[in-house]
User: Fold these one by one.
Assistant:
Number 1:
Amino acid sequence: MTGTIACYGELLLRLGAPGRQRLLQSPQLDVHIGGAEANVGVSLAQLGHPVRMLGRVADNPLGQAALGELRRHGVQTASVQAVPGRMGLYFLTTGALQRPSEVVYDRADSVFARGTPADYDWPALLDGARWLHLSGVTPALGPQVAETALDAARAARQAGLGVSFDGNFRPKLWEAWGGDAPGILRQLMEQADVLFADHRDMAVVLSQDFAQAEGPARNRAAAAAAFEAFPHLRYMACTLRTTYSVDHHGLGAMLMTRDGGCLEAPTRELPGVVDRIGGGDAFAAGILHGLLRALPDAETLAFGLAAGCLKHSIEGDFNLASEAEIRALMVEGRLDVRR
Amino acid sequence: MTGTIACYGELLLRLGAPGRQRLLQSPQLDVHIGGAEANVGVSLAQLGHPVRMLGRVADNPLGQAALGELRRHGVQTASVQAVPGRMGLYFLTTGALQRPSEVVYDRADSVFARGTPADYDWPALLDGARWLHLSGVTPALGPQVAETALDAARAARQAGLGVSFDGNFRPKLWEAWGGDAPGILRQLMEQADVLFADHRDMAVVLSQDFAQAEGPARNRAAAAAAFEAFPHLRYMACTLRTTYSVDHHGLGAMLMTRDGGCLEAPTRELPGVVDRIGGGDAFAAGILHGLLRALPDAETLAFGLAAGCLKHSIEGDFNLASEAEIRALMVEGRLDVRR
Amino acid sequence: MTGTIACYGELLLRLGAPGRQRLLQSPQLDVHIGGAEANVGVSLAQLGHPVRMLGRVADNPLGQAALGELRRHGVQTASVQAVPGRMGLYFLTTGALQRPSEVVYDRADSVFARGTPADYDWPALLDGARWLHLSGVTPALGPQVAETALDAARAARQAGLGVSFDGNFRPKLWEAWGGDAPGILRQLMEQADVLFADHRDMAVVLSQDFAQAEGPARNRAAAAAAFEAFPHLRYMACTLRTTYSVDHHGLGAMLMTRDGGCLEAPTRELPGVVDRIGGGDAFAAGILHGLLRALPDAETLAFGLAAGCLKHSIEGDFNLASEAEIRALMVEGRLDVRR
Amino acid sequence: MTGTIACYGELLLRLGAPGRQRLLQSPQLDVHIGGAEANVGVSLAQLGHPVRMLGRVADNPLGQAALGELRRHGVQTASVQAVPGRMGLYFLTTGALQRPSEVVYDRADSVFARGTPADYDWPALLDGARWLHLSGVTPALGPQVAETALDAARAARQAGLGVSFDGNFRPKLWEAWGGDAPGILRQLMEQADVLFADHRDMAVVLSQDFAQAEGPARNRAAAAAAFEAFPHLRYMACTLRTTYSVDHHGLGAMLMTRDGGCLEAPTRELPGVVDRIGGGDAFAAGILHGLLRALPDAETLAFGLAAGCLKHSIEGDFNLASEAEIRALMVEGRLDVRR
Amino acid sequence: MTGTIACYGELLLRLGAPGRQRLLQSPQLDVHIGGAEANVGVSLAQLGHPVRMLGRVADNPLGQAALGELRRHGVQTASVQAVPGRMGLYFLTTGALQRPSEVVYDRADSVFARGTPADYDWPALLDGARWLHLSGVTPALGPQVAETALDAARAARQAGLGVSFDGNFRPKLWEAWGGDAPGILRQLMEQADVLFADHRDMAVVLSQDFAQAEGPARNRAAAAAAFEAFPHLRYMACTLRTTYSVDHHGLGAMLMTRDGGCLEAPTRELPGVVDRIGGGDAFAAGILHGLLRALPDAETLAFGLAAGCLKHSIEGDFNLASEAEIRALMVEGRLDVRR
Amino acid sequence: MTGTIACYGELLLRLGAPGRQRLLQSPQLDVHIGGAEANVGVSLAQLGHPVRMLGRVADNPLGQAALGELRRHGVQTASVQAVPGRMGLYFLTTGALQRPSEVVYDRADSVFARGTPADYDWPALLDGARWLHLSGVTPALGPQVAETALDAARAARQAGLGVSFDGNFRPKLWEAWGGDAPGILRQLMEQADVLFADHRDMAVVLSQDFAQAEGPARNRAAAAAAFEAFPHLRYMACTLRTTYSVDHHGLGAMLMTRDGGCLEAPTRELPGVVDRIGGGDAFAAGILHGLLRALPDAETLAFGLAAGCLKHSIEGDFNLASEAEIRALMVEGRLDVRR
C-alpha cells in the first residue's frame, strides 16, 4: 500500500522573538512555518511517506514561502489553492524558567478561514490518497470551515481512506463564533480510525466526566467511552506531559485499542527543551508512521513517543528528525557526539 | 506658543526582509514601527516639539511595542487607546537596481481601522494642543474612520488649532470599501491650514485636470485651484521625485502660498538610498517645523527638503535626523567623517 | 496617593558578548541599558507606577539611547540632565556551567560620577513625587556624588516622601577613592523607610558581627540591629541566593518589619537562568510595589520574590515582566505554552 | 507541449562571507545553493515550467539541503541520486569598488564529479521531458563526467528533446585533468538546438579567431561559424557585460538565428549590483522561456536580458524574479515602492 | 626549562549550524578553527607556554584564517607550510536533549592529509622545542601521514624532547584506507612520555581485553599494560565521561604513573553544556601544563579536569579559559557574577 | 635589510552601529580594532614585513582582544605592555548619502594616554628594528605621551632607524589639554625621514600660509617649506580626497622628494565606499612598503594610492588587501568575479 497521505489544515507563519527574548524586545523576528496538520505532514514526509497538503494560502510572498517550506521538506503542495487574502500568523515569545511561552494569534480572516465547502472538490483532492489527517483546530475556525472539514472526513471514509483526527481542542477559537464544539467534533471523530485525544478532549466531546479515575486510568476510561461512541475508531493515542519548568518537561504516552488493549510508554525526561511547539504533532505523526507501516503496537507507541521527544530538541514547528534518529533514541543509543 | 502637536493616525508594524533579500528568502524579519502620521510626529519630536499621538493600538505585546517605540523617540502616547484586536502590519521587500521595493499590506480589520467616532472624545484629546496633523491614509480605511478623521479636523479648527493634512491618496484602500475619496478628502482639506499634496492629489479631489501644464507648473496650477477651493489653506507643499533606479533618486520640493508665492528647491541627488519609506513624511515634518518656528518660507522649504533627503539615509520609517544634521545639509557641510 | 516615584542613580550601557561567548570572541556586542536604580524604576513603570528618573547622562547618542530606552519602558526622563562627557559602561561576559559571568567596569569619570551637589535642585527635582529610591552604588562613586545622594535623601524626607535604599555594597568602588563606606551608608540608611539589605550589608554599616546566627536568623538579627539604629526604618527585605551552577540558582526572600515581624518566602528553583543581572533590583521593585499598593506583607514578599525570579528569565538588566505574569507565578499557574 | 525540462549538472554549496566582508573576516558564512544548470532550472520553475533536476548529491545533510532548496523553488528532485561522498563547495568573497569578488573552489572529488556513465540511465531519466539543458562546466569536471554529459545530450536528441548548452568555458577545470576542451565541447554543441556562447567560447571550440571583428560583430561572426559547424543549432545567444566597478555593471545581449537574424538589446545600467553570480544563467533561462513559450524573438531577447539584469538585484545564485517582475522591467515600469 | 611546545596535526575548519539548529535549517554557518593538536596548543598558549604549530594548510583565505586564529590565541604559526590544495572541513550540528551532536567530515584529500615524510624536516622543525604533542587522528589519515607522524615522534625522542600522545582512536578513518591501526599506534605510543588514553584505546593497541575489570579499574589495568609495553611512558591519563543527556554530562578523570600510582578525580556535574567539542584536548593540555610546570600529580589531575570541564562552557574547539579561571574552579570559588 | 618595523601608538576599540544604522538604533555594536599606527602596522604585515607594535593596553579582555586581533594579522605584540586601566574606545555611526559618518570618542584616560616616558625603554623596544612609525594623534593625547613620542623618535634616529610620521592633526585633542601642537609636532617632524602630511598640516606646524597656491600646488609649496624646515626629511606624501557624497569619494595622491621631485597620481573614483576609516593609514603603509622595498617613486606612489583605494572596500580599520590585490588594481585588472 503506497498511497499518499493527505493533510487538510491551515498553514500559519510563526513570527518569533529570537532566543528567549520578549516579543519585539529587539527588532527582529524569526520565521517558521507551521500548522497542526502541516506539522504531521512534514514529519511523515521525513519518514518516507508521500504526503499531500490540502487547503488555501494567500497568493502573495507569504503564502509562497509557506508552500516553499513544505516542498523543501518533501510535502506536495500542488493541490493547495493560492487565493487573494491574508495568511494566518502567530507571534511567539519563547519562555524560560517559570515564564511560560506565549502565543499571540493573528489568524482571523485568513484565506484558509474564509474557505467554504464550495472551494473544495474532495473526491478530486483525495484522489490517489490512502489516508486523511485532520485536527480539531480546523473546524474551530468557523462554521464554513467546520462544514468543510466534515465534508473532507466523510469523503475520505466514503472513498475507503483511513482517517486520523487530532482533538486539539481550542476553546477560545470556538467561543469566538459560538460554535457547537462537542457536536461538530463528535461528528468528525465518528469518521476517525485513529484519534489523538485524551480524557480532557473526550470530556468535552462526550460530555462525560472522567474525573473519578486518576492518571493514566482517566485516559483509559476516556478511550473506552470513545470506542463505544465511535464505531470506526481503531486506535486512540495521547501523550502525558509533566511541566517541571518551562524548559524541563517529562513526556510519556499511551496507545489504546478497540479490544481494550492499553500500552503505556514510560515518561522521558526532557531537560533543556529547545522548542516545545509541535511536540504533539510529532507524536501523532510517529504513531501514524507505525500504523501505516504496520509495526507492532508497542513499537508504534515507542516510535511515536521518541518522535515527540526529539521534536522538543528542534527549532520550529516541524519535527525534522529522521527515522534513524528516532530509532536511535528508542534503543537508547549513546548521546555523545556522532562522528 | 508652546502647545503640543497632535497626530492622529494608525501605527503599523513593518516586517521587512533583511538587506536586499526577497521576503522570507531567509527566515528573518526586521521590525520597524511606522505610519504616515506617526512618522511626522517622531520627526517633530526629534526637532524639539512636544508631540502627542492619538489613535488605537492592540492591547498586546505588538501594540505595546509600537507605543514603546514612539515614546523612545519622544512622542507622548498616553492618549492612545489600547484595545483588544490586531495591529495593522505591512511586509516590506526592499528592492535594488530595477527591482522595486514591494509592500504587502496586512492591515485590514486592525483595531485602528475598527475605531468609530464614538471612541474619540476630540475636545479632550486635543486639549492643550496647538496643531493637528492627519493624512489621507486614515479616511481611506473605512467610513467610520473617515467620519472620525473629519470629526478630528473639525474639532481642531473649532478649538483654534492649526491643521495640516497630507494627501497620501491610496486608491486601493478606497476601492476596498467603495469610499467617496474625492468627497471625503475635500471635506478634510477644507479644514487644513497646510496641505501636503501635488497635482495628482488635487486632480482627484477637485476633479480637475492639470495636465495642460508641465513639471512644476502643474503643481502651481494645482495649488492655485486648492487655494481657491479651501479658504483656510495657507500653504501647500510637495516633493518632486525622480527615480533613476531603485537606489538612486532625485528629490526636489515646492512650497506655495495663498498669495501666489511659489518657491522651488532644486533637486538633490540621492545615490545609494538606504530606505525610502517615510521620505514624504520627513519632508512634511520639516515644513511643519519651519512653519511652527515661523522661519522664512525659503528656509522652511530648504529645511523640509533637507529633512526629506536625510530620511533616505536612515533605516526604518522614522526620520531620526537631528536639527543640527538637517541644518548641516542645508549649508552643504563637508561630508567626510565627523570626529 | 498617586504621586511619582523618583529614582536617582546612574544609567549604564551594558555591552555584552552574544550568548555564552567570551568577550570579543566574535566581534559583536549586545547592548542593554541598566543601573540599579533605573532597573527599579523600569520595573515600577511596568507595574503601572509613574516613575521619574533623576541623574545625568552624556549629551551624545549614547546618553540619548539610554534615555530613549527608559522612555520606551515608561519612565519619565525629562528631569535627567544631558551634559558633555562620557557614559558609564560595563562589559559583560555571561558565564555557563562553572564559569562565572564577568563584568569589566569602565565607568570612571562618567558624567554621572562627575556630578556635584550644585548640579541638583532637589526640591524642584522631587516636586510632585511621593517616593525616592536610591542605592549604595551611587555614593560609592566619589565624595561629591555621595554628598549629592545624602542631599537627595534628606530633601526627600524633609518633603515628606518615602525613601527606599538598596545597600548594594561594592567594596572596589569605595576603595578606589578611600570613601568611608560605613559612615556614609549609615547616614543614607538613616533616611530610609525601606531598606534592601542583608546581614552582610549591616555588618559593614553597623560594624557588627552577625556570624553567631546562621541562615535566615542572621538576617533577622541584622534587621533587629537596623531597626534599632534607624528610627525611620519600617521594612527591611533581602533575597537568599544559592548558586548551584552559573545557570542554576535558588532564590528565597525575607521581609522584616519594625514590630519584629519576619516573613520568609521559600526558595524557588531557577534552572536555566537566562540573565541574572538585575535580579535584586527586580525584587526590590516588587517589594516597593507591594508597599506602595498597601498589599498585605505576605503578598508583598511573595510578589517581590516572584518578580525577582522572573527577572532571571529575561534578557537585559530590566525586569520586563508584567504584573499579570508575576501574579501567575505567585499562584503557580501552568507552565505550558499560553495560547 | 507541456513536457518537463531536464537540467543535468552539479549542485554546489556556496559559502559566502557576509555582506562585503573578506572571507572569514568574521566567523560566519552565508549559505546558498547553486550550480549553472540548477540556476537555469530554478529560473524556469519560477516562470511556471515543470523542471526536473538530474545528477548526484551526497547522502548527507548537505546534499539533502541542496535538494530541499531546489524543491522549495519548485524543481523536482526525485531523480537526483543521493550517494555516499562529498558535496562540491565554493567559498565566495563578494567584492566592492575595485576589489573583485573572489571564488575559492573546493569541488574536486565531489559525488557529482565521481559519477560515471554507468550511473545514469538516460532514457529513464529523460522520460516525459521535452528539453535538456547542460553547460560546459559539467564536462570540464573529468573524462567520466564528460562522457556522461555526451551520453545525456545524445540520448536527448535521439528521444526528440530540444537541447540547450551553455558554453561556460572554465580553463582551470579542464587543465586540472588535461581534458580536450575543444573536442568535447564541440561534440556537445553538435547536439544543441540553442547555444549560450559568445566569440570567446567559439574561438576555443572552433579554433577560429574572431578578433578581426569588433564589439557585437565579433559575436555575429562567431554565430555564423557556429551555425555552419552545428547543423542542429537554431539559436545562439550571449550577454555583453561592461564592468565599470565591481558594483556597477552594464549588461546588453544578442540573439542570433540560423537564418542570419541578429537582434541586439541595448545595454542596461546596473549601478549597485547586489549579487552578480548566476546572471548568465538567469539570462539563459529567460531566453529558454521565450523559446519554449514561442515568443517573438525580440521579446525573447528582451525577456532574457531583463531576467539577467534582475538577477543582479537578488542575493544568491538563483534568479527568484517572477515573470511579472521581469515583464515590468521590460516595459520600464515605475521604480518607486509598490504598495 | 623554557623551550617551546610543538604540536603536529591538522587544522580543520568547523562549519556549524547556529545554536541548536539542524545543519542548514537556516542558511548560515558559524565557523571555528580546530584540530585535536591545535586545541592542545591553544590551551597551552593561553596558560603561558610558548607553542609552535607544525603541519600544512591551504595557501588560500581558509588556510590563512586558520593560521590567523591560532596566532590570535598566541600560537606561533611560522613553521606551518601553506601549500596549494584544500583545507579539511567538518560540519557540526550541535544536538540537544536526546538528539546527539553530529559531525559530517569533509576532510579527505586535504593539504595536510596529502603531506609526505619528505615535506617535513623534523630536526629543523623541532629546533628549540622541549616537547612534542601528537594524537591518533593524524596517523589515521593515511600511510604517508602515519609515516610522517612516526618520523616526528622519533625525531623528538632522539632530540631529547618530551613526547605526548593522545589516542583519539577513530575507526572510520583507519578503515577508509585499511591502515594497521594497532601496529602504527603502538609504534607511536612507544615514543610517548605521556599518554592520553583509556582502556578502549589500549584494548585496540595492545589487543588485550580489559573487560574483566569494571569502571576505573579497567583503566588501571590498561595503564599497567601500557607501562609494561611502553618503556618511555611516565604518565597515562584519561577522562571518565557520563552522558545523562546531550546537554548534561558528568566528567571525572584519572592519572596513572609508572610506579603504579593512580589518582582519581571525582566526577563533576556539567548541566547545560555549551560546547563539548575539544573537551578531551582541554583536559590533555591541563595535564601537560601540570607536568611541564612540575606540579604535584594530584594538582595536575585537578587542573586537567577543571580545564576539561571549563571547556564545556566555551563555544568553539579551543579552551579559552585562563589559568586563573581554571584555578578558581579547582578551589570551588563562588559562581555568582564577578564584578 | 630585513629588520622589523616598529609602530608606536594607541590601540582603540571601534564600536560601530551595524550597516548604515544610527548608533544604538538597534541594540548591537560591531567591534573592530584600530588606531592610526596599528593600521599602518597591520598593512605592512599583510605586505610581508615583520612588524612590532609598541604601546600599552588594558590588562583585561578588551586589551587582550586588541592584541589578539593584531597577532591574527601578523603583527608582533610581545612588546606591548598590559597594565591596569581602560582601553580607548570610539563609537562609529557609518553615514550614507549626505549624512556624514560620525565618531564619538571615549578615549580619555586610557592606559595608553596615561603612559609616561618612564614606562618605555626605547633602546630595548626598538632593538632589532629598522624603522619607526608614529603619528600626530599620539602626542595630542597629553604632555606625557607627547614627551614619550619625542623620546621614541629621537631614540630611533639615534639608533639609525628610519622614521616616518603621519601628521594626523586633531585640534580637539590638543585643545583638551592646551598642548602646543605646532611646537611639539615640529619637533617630531624634525626626526622624520618620511612625512605623511599636506598643506593644512604644514600650515599648522610651520605657521605658514599656503593659501596663495591652489590645488596640488599648495601641497607642493608646503612640501618645499617642509624640506627646508626638516633636514632629515626625504619624502612627503599625501592624498587628495574629493567627497561627492558620503558613499562616493575620489582619491588622488602626491609624492614629493627633497630634490623637488613631485609625482601626482590621478584621482580614482570610489563609488560605493564600504568603510572609509583607515584609508589614509592604508595609503601611508603602501608608500612605506614602496620605500622599504626600494621601488621606483612612481610605482611607490601608485602602490600607495591603490592600497588607500582598496581600503575603502574593506570593513574595519585595517587594510586587509594583499600585495597581489593592490598590484592588480595598479594594472587595472578585470573586475568581474575571480574564479
Number 2:
Amino acid sequence: MADSSSLDALVEALRRLPGVGAKSASRMAFHLLQHDREGTLMLARALQQAASNVRHCERCNTFTEGQVCSVCQDARRDGTKLCVVETPADQAALERTGVFRGYYFVLMGKLSPLDGVGPNDIGLAKLFARALDGTVSEVILATNFTAEGEATAHVIGDALKQRGLSVTRLARGVPAGSELEYVDLGTIAHALVDRR
Amino acid sequence: MADSSSLDALVEALRRLPGVGAKSASRMAFHLLQHDREGTLMLARALQQAASNVRHCERCNTFTEGQVCSVCQDARRDGTKLCVVETPADQAALERTGVFRGYYFVLMGKLSPLDGVGPNDIGLAKLFARALDGTVSEVILATNFTAEGEATAHVIGDALKQRGLSVTRLARGVPAGSELEYVDLGTIAHALVDRR
Ligand SMILES: [Zn+2]
Ligand SMILES: [Zn+2]
C-alpha cells in the first residue's frame, strides 16, 4: 500500500481473518495506523494473550483457560443429559433460554466431507468418551439445522444409539436452513421442550 | 463467548477494526483460536512491528519506515508538479496508470466537518509548506469525487491559488460519487491528461 514492508506484512496478516479480502485488509491497516495506534497494540496483546491462554475444556471441548470450564464444574447440573453443539456461540444461545440444565459437548466444528472435515477433525472420539461416562443417559443433538449440521447429528446419533444411549434432536421448531446463533430465544426454548 | 477472559478481550479488540461488529469479531476469534494459531501469532507480531516501525514521510506524509519515502527520494521525478491525494491507496491507483511523474502529498484523510475533521486534522499546514517549496508550480488535486473530497479540493485549491500556485483538478472523466481506488486505470489516466 505504501513504502513500508511492515505495513505490507500487516495487510497480509489481516487477510488471514475470515471474510477479510485485500481491500478490507488495507482499510483496516490504514485505520489502525492512522487513527488507532492504541487499538493496534491492544489487539496485538489480546491476540498473544488468547493464543497462550485459551485451551480446550477436558470435558466439553469448549474454549477455556483452565483444565475444565465453569459449566462443566457446575455440580448442580443434571449429569444424565448431554447437549451436543457445534460452537461456543451455539452453546451460549442455548444457555440464554434457561431451559436446559444438563451439560454440553462443543464439537468446535461440524462434519463437512466436501471441505475435508471428517470425524477425527471434530473430536468425535472425545465426545464418545464423554457421553459414555456411565452417568449420561440422554444425548441431545443441537447441531445446526443446515445440511452439514444434520449430517453431523446423523453420524453422532447412529454411533451413540449403537452404544445404548438415548439420543434426541432439537424439535424442528427451529426454521430449517438456519443457524442457532441467529434464532430467537422463544423458538429455541420451544424446540428444546419438544425434542424428539 | 466461552469461559475465557482472554477470548472476551480478543473479541473486544477485534471490534475496534472498521466494519467489524460483535458477530464478526466472535467468528474471527473462533477461527483464529480453533484453526489458525500460527496466524494469530503472526498477526500479533505484524501489528506490533507496524505500530513501532510505520511513520509518516516528512515530505509527502504517506506511511513509510524511514524519514523520507522512496517516491520522494526519486530524483528523476518532476519537482514542479505535486499531486494531492487522500490515501496511500489512492496514490497507488494513480501510480499504476504510469501517466504522472511528479511528486505526491498524501492527506491521510479528508475534510469532514460533520465528523469533526477540520484542516488541522489532515495536516494542511504540512501540505502548504511542501507546496510552497519554491520548485512546485502546479498542484493537481486528486482527492476523491465525493462530497467530502470535493470540499477538501475546494479548500486546498483556494488557499494555494491565493499563494500564487497553479491549481488543477483531475478531469471529471472519473464518475461522480466514486472513489479513485475502485476506478479503472484507463479512466484515471484520461482524467489525468484532461486535468483542468
Ligand atoms: Zn467444559
Ligand atoms: Zn514521501
Number 3:
Amino acid sequence: MLSRVRSAVAHLVSSGGAPPPRPKSPDLSNAPSAQPAVPPEAPRSPPARAGSGSSAPAKTVEARASFSRPTFLQLSPGGLRRADDHAGRAVQSPPDTGRRLPWSTGYAEVINAGKSRHNEDQACCEVVYVEGRRSVSGVPREPSRGQGLCFYYWGLFDGHAGGGAAEMASRLLHRHIREQLKDLSCWSSQKEVTHESLVVGAIENAFQFMDEQMARERHGHQVEGGCCALVVVYLLGKVYVANAGDSRAIIVRNGEIIPMSREFTPETERQRLQLLGFLKPELLGGEFTHLEFPRRIQPKELGQRMLYRDQNMTGWAYKKIELEDLRFPLVCGEGKKARVMATIGVTRGLGDHNLKVCSSTLPIKPFLSCFPEVRVYDLTQYEHCPDDVLVLGTDGLWDVTSDCEVAATVDRVLSAYEPNDPSRYTALAQALVLGARGTPRDRGWRLPNNKLGSGDDISVFVIPLGGPGSYS
Amino acid sequence: MLSRVRSAVAHLVSSGGAPPPRPKSPDLSNAPSAQPAVPPEAPRSPPARAGSGSSAPAKTVEARASFSRPTFLQLSPGGLRRADDHAGRAVQSPPDTGRRLPWSTGYAEVINAGKSRHNEDQACCEVVYVEGRRSVSGVPREPSRGQGLCFYYWGLFDGHAGGGAAEMASRLLHRHIREQLKDLSCWSSQKEVTHESLVVGAIENAFQFMDEQMARERHGHQVEGGCCALVVVYLLGKVYVANAGDSRAIIVRNGEIIPMSREFTPETERQRLQLLGFLKPELLGGEFTHLEFPRRIQPKELGQRMLYRDQNMTGWAYKKIELEDLRFPLVCGEGKKARVMATIGVTRGLGDHNLKVCSSTLPIKPFLSCFPEVRVYDLTQYEHCPDDVLVLGTDGLWDVTSDCEVAATVDRVLSAYEPNDPSRYTALAQALVLGARGTPRDRGWRLPNNKLGSGDDISVFVIPLGGPGSYS
C-alpha cells in the first residue's frame, strides 16, 4: 500500500527473540495447493531493533523486513529475485505447468515501483477441512471426510509499514476461520440465528483472534506493520466476502457489476472515529480534536466562526473557534491523502499494534478496527456461466481502474478464450494487473491514456463462479 | 406510536411551574398556512405532578397531557371532539373550502384505537422565510423579500408516552431550522463544503437544538414523552428528507419506489447501542449487558456455551456464559417488540429526557440519538409529472402497508382524478390512511384481507413533486 502509513515504520517497536515457531500444517483435504504456506527458501528477517522515534531511517528497518511470495506461485530462487525487481516489475502468476488453483482461480501480482523494499501484498488460496467439535447434526456437508466439512478460501493481504503482518495473516487467518467454524457442528436452528449468520460470526471472530495473536506475538516474533485483509470463503453454496481495509471485491455477472465490499478509510469511517474520540477523549492525548474543519485553524482565528462537523453530522455548520479547536484534527485530508492522526490512511485491518502518532507515544491502534464487513452471495440463486467472475484486488488495482473498466477487461479477455479453457482466468488477472501497472515511459509507469499507472503493489484474484473446475 | 414505550409514562418526572410562554409567531412570507401553530381553542394541559415511580397510573398522567391537532385542519370545537373519538376513528383532512396547503399537499390522519387518550401524532406544514445573518453573497434566492430566502417545510411527529414532545416539535422545529439556515448567508464555496452540505448540517443541528430546548424546558413546562420526527425541507431545487425515528418517506415516481428514509429501531441500531454500552459501561448501571443473546440466559446455564453477538458482529458466535451475561440484554426482542433496556422501541427522536428504565432510576436518554439521517433529492434532475409524489407516513401507516401497496394506491387514486385537480393529493392521503386503518368488523379494525388494521395513530402527507400549485 503506497504511502498508507506516514513515518510509521519509524515507530515500530519489536524486541529480540526466537524465530516464530512454524505452525503445524493445515488440515487439508483434496487441496490442490496443500503446500506449506511459507516456502523453506523464503528468507526470514531478523528481529528488528526497538524503534526510537521518528529519526530512525525507514530504509534500515525495511531492509530487515521479511520477504516471501505466495507458495502457489512456486517461485524458484531466481523467480523470487525477478518478483522482487522494482525496475522490471514483471507480472507474476502461478505456472501453467503446475497444479491449478481451486476452481481454476486466476491470480497475478506485481511489485511496487520502489516505495518499499519488497512487495508487501500477500495472498493465499486453500481448501480447508474443518473437523466438527462434536458430531454434526442438521448441517449439510460438502464432499468431506468424517464428521467435518470443507471450505474454499481466498485471501488478499495488503501490508503497510512492513510485510510481517500481511505474511502472518496469509499464513494463519484461514486456520482461525477453520477453528471458529468448528462451532458450526454445535448449531441447531433457533430463532434468528441462521446457519449463514454463524458463518459470518465465525469469520468476524477469526479476524479478531488473528489480530489478538499478532498482538501477543509482536514482541517475540517479527510482526511488523499492519495489513488490510480481503477474504472469500465458499461454504455450502454461499460465497462470504469479508473486507477489512481498502481492498475491493466485485462480481461481474453477465456484464453487470455487483459490489461485494466497501472500503474503510478515514473518510468513510469518519463518524466512527470521531465518536470514539468524543466518548474516549483520553485517546486523543490532548494532541487532537475529534472535530473536523475544512482546513487547519490558525491561532489568530480564535473566537471567529468556522465551519465544522462532529461525529453526529454528515453536513457542515458553523461554530465559534475555541482553544481546543486549535489541536490537530483526528481525521484530516481528502481521498488517498486522508489520514487518522496524521499517520495512517486505512482504518480497518490486522496488526498495527505498535503504531504511534509521528513524534509522539500516542497509540493509533484503538482507532483501528480489525472487524471486517461480511457480504454474502448465494451462488445457487443464479445459473452462472463461465464468464461470471468474482474479482478481488488490492488498492493498487482500484486506484487507477474503475469497476466498469474491470468489467470491460473481463469481457474483452474472457471472450478471447474458449469457455472451458482454465487458463483464461489467469490471463484475465494478468491483464488487470498489467492494465493498472502500465508500461515504463516518460519517466514513469504510464497507462495507454498517458496517465500514471499504479506505483503500488498490485494483486488480483479472479474467481470463476461458473467456470470449469469450479465447485460444481 | 403503539406501545412504543413500555411503562414509560409512569416514569415521567415534571415539576410544576408557569404555563409555557407562547413563542412569538414565525416570520412567514407568502405562507398559505400562516396561522399560529397552536390554535387558541386548543386546551393546554396543566403542569403534571412529579412522577413517583411505576405505581403512578398511566391514565392520570395521560389525562393531563396536552391535546391539539394541526392548525391547518382548521377544526372547530366539534371537529376536535370528532378527531378525538377512538370509537369512530374519523379520518381528518384540511377542509376543501379553506386555503390549500403549499404545493397542494395532501394530508390525512386518524386517531388510534384506544391505546392512548389522544392522538399523539402531530404535523406541520409551513412556508418559512429566513433572514440572512448578514448580506447574502453567492447564494441564489427563492422568491423572497430582502436579503433572505424561503423554504417549504413539512413535518410529521409521532409522539410516545404523552403528546407534549410531538406538540412542541411541531410548533418549533422549523424555527430552529430557520435559525440554523441563517448561516447560509455566511457561506462561500470552499473545498468539500457544498451549499447542500450546509443545509444538511443546518437541519442536523436544528434537531439537536430542538432536543436541547426540550431538555431545558421539561421541568418548567409540559414536555412529556418523546417523539419521532420526519421532516422535509425544500430549498433551492432540492428536497431534504430528515428522519429520526420509525416514520418513513418514499418517493413514488412513474411507479418506481425511491426510499427517502430508513427506520431507527433497537434492531437497526443494535451495534451503535452496544458500542455505547461497551465504551460507557456505567450507562448500563450494572443492570444490563451490552451483549445480545438469542434468548434470556438462565442462572443454571452459567459456564455453558451460548450464542451471542457484540457491537462488532453482524453474525453470531459461541461464548462461555459468565456471571455478567445473566444481566438483561441492552437490546432485546424482535420486530415491533424490540426494545432498548426493555423499555423503548425507537432509538432516535426528540425528547424522552425523563425516560427511565422501568422500576429503576437508570436513564435511557443517553442511548437515544436526536440526530436525523438526511437524504437529498434533486428535483431538477428529473421532469416530474403530476402523479409523482413524496409520501410521508408515521409507523401507523407502514406497520400494515408495504411500499409497493402505497405505490399501487398512488396509481389507483391519482388516475381517478384529473391531473390538475388539486384535491387529488388529499384524496390519496385519505385513501392511504383508510387503507391502513380498515373498518370495524369481527371485534377489531380489519383490512379487506381480514387482517387487523393499524390500531395506532396514522398520519400521512402526500407531497406532489410536479403537480398543480407546486414549486414550479
